[in-house]
Request: fold
Amino acid sequence: MDELKQSKTTSKSWSLARKRSAWLVSMCACASFLYMAVRVYEIHIEILLKNFSMVLLVALVVISFGFFVGWLMAFFRRPK
Reply:
């Protein structure tokens, strides 16, 4: 019984370690891709930052709109 419990905790910690390492590898790959875009293709960092801020702004608008529509639906559907 204790062996089964120990193997479950070991597999959980191993799974967590694999998720963390996969996240780190993906972040390093993303950083190297951006570095390559700046160095090899001579894309200015200002352009990348401007585009990134536009993406964040549009995502914020879309999420806010979805939240507002959901709130309106809940407001009008509540029992009177």
Notes: The first helix runs from residue 2 to 39.
